[in-house]
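User: structure tokens for DNA-directed DNA polymerase, please.
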Amino acid sequence: TLEEIQEFKELYQQDEKAEKLINLGKKLEGVARHASTHACGAVISDVPLDQIIPTQHPSQSDQNIITQYEMHSVEDLGLLKMDFLGLKNLTIIEDTLSRIYEVHGKNIDIENIPLDDEKTFELFQNANSTGVFQMESSGMRRYLEQLKPTEFEDIIAMVSLYRPGPMKNIPKYIARKHGEQEVEYLHPKLEPILKPTYGIIVYQEQVMKIAQKLAGFSLEEADILRKAIGKKIRSLLEDQKEKFITGMKKNDIEQQVAQQIWDWIEPFAEYSFNKSHATAYAMIAYRTAYLKAHYPVEFMSALLTSKKNDVDQVAGLIEECRKMGIEVLPPDINESFRNFSVVAEEDKIRFGLLAIKNVGEKVVENIVKERRSNGSFESMEDFLSRVDSKGLNKTALECLIKVGAFDRFDKRNKLLSNLEELLGFSKEIRKRSNSNQQNLFQDRFDAKLTLQKADRASQNQKLQWERELLGLFVSGDPLDRYQRQLKNTFPLQQIKEDLEKQQDGPRNPFSRKIVPGKKVKVGGMINNVKQIRTKNGNSMLFVKLRGLTDKMEVVVFPSTLNKHSKAFKENNVVLMKGKVDKRNDEPKIICEEVEKIVNSN
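Assistant: Done. Predicted tokens:
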């Protein structure tokens, strides 16, 4: 900075305090600010590490051993540094296999599934890849639909190409695979190396192979070239370029062609991917797709369990289940376990008891343990007699009732209206048991509950309880009642998808109905109303509009809010007109007019 910025240099020369401060800064320059640990990096050596490099504990309370040298210095010393990545998808695969065994009694050898399975490739070709590792983004799904993968190599290539930089080559890869664009090579010797990827450099191994076969590099030299290009090491690049071109000339490749090949591979190699890494990821993608294709219920229940703490993701996966024809049922006292589970012989998924707000782990553990030991519960009396009331307090019992866990025994409102009677019955049973006045086994059948009648809860009330205690609607959707009114609105999901298609290359066969600025009519339920003040002190709103297919943010400026203030209340169902906007890459609607309040809360 002192050499490049004149004003800074003058300040240093003329101001004594500035000179002192800058001199101190120069002494600190390059000094490590703090020590941190690479979360998944491990160093491997054939001798104790402290014989080669200094080691330390991360902190006084942490007795793990870490290197004092940072990762690049460790590699420069010739030590092997490995990154071990923990992927939730491996747990999902393992969980799915366990569920398959529980339901079907089959042991699937996931290591040896066929890599040319027709149903699996059909899933990829139709882009039904929600929940499939590396393949579930909307952009990836669009490309899968265009590519129509037919072999495992296609999956490896998509894992490698779907990243900033190489993504621009995906349309070319697709066109060449389908014979719509000619595959050309700068030199015949490139063909055997690049033929599997239709003449496009996709992998680092291809760069190394070109250096070997065309320029006579050894494997070690080819790896240095890969590193120099991939990591943009300027000090190495010029030397490598000269060596590369000289080597090609020795192999009877003309100077001009050699220069063309270098100019061609350098930008490609910068973004090329390690094929062994891509293959490992593609294998996980393929295995998850295989399980989804052949055992959809077991796979989706395992996937839902893995996302159980994210309500939005669970809601999205339940919607995916509906598209797949899999019903997701609310919690049930006889069928639910801790987490999402498969309802045997019905191809359905049941919510877990732990998903219910205010129902603790101890209560769930007691319920499942008792059921496994002594069979299903036969009635409310049976349940209250057998499950330890310690922990099953009023709130927990109320929440179990509201989500429908006892629907097989009685109506929700009736049980809620008699909640005190239920709690009293439970206490009395426990009291008798503790005093040994009667045999508890006898109590199961002799003790009877007398419950007062009550009006049935409406379907809408049940859905609101589900949303309150499970975080989402399960047994239905309040918007189902308004399908007719919402029929002529633009689906929010399609708006999002059309906006994302703007980013695709020219080879996009899909229509582009929606562009930023287009006026649309949309409808849905108002959620998450957030009010702010403008610079002028006026109120404006940011609300979430939940439609039949998706959710989207709606911006309501002061002028619109003043005209339609009654519309933007939580849970109102409205029809509105507005402009599509995509600032900061986030699709939203700028509301201009509320056409109709379909339902007011």
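User: Anything notable?

Assistant: Residues 505-512 have pLDDT under 50 and may be disordered.
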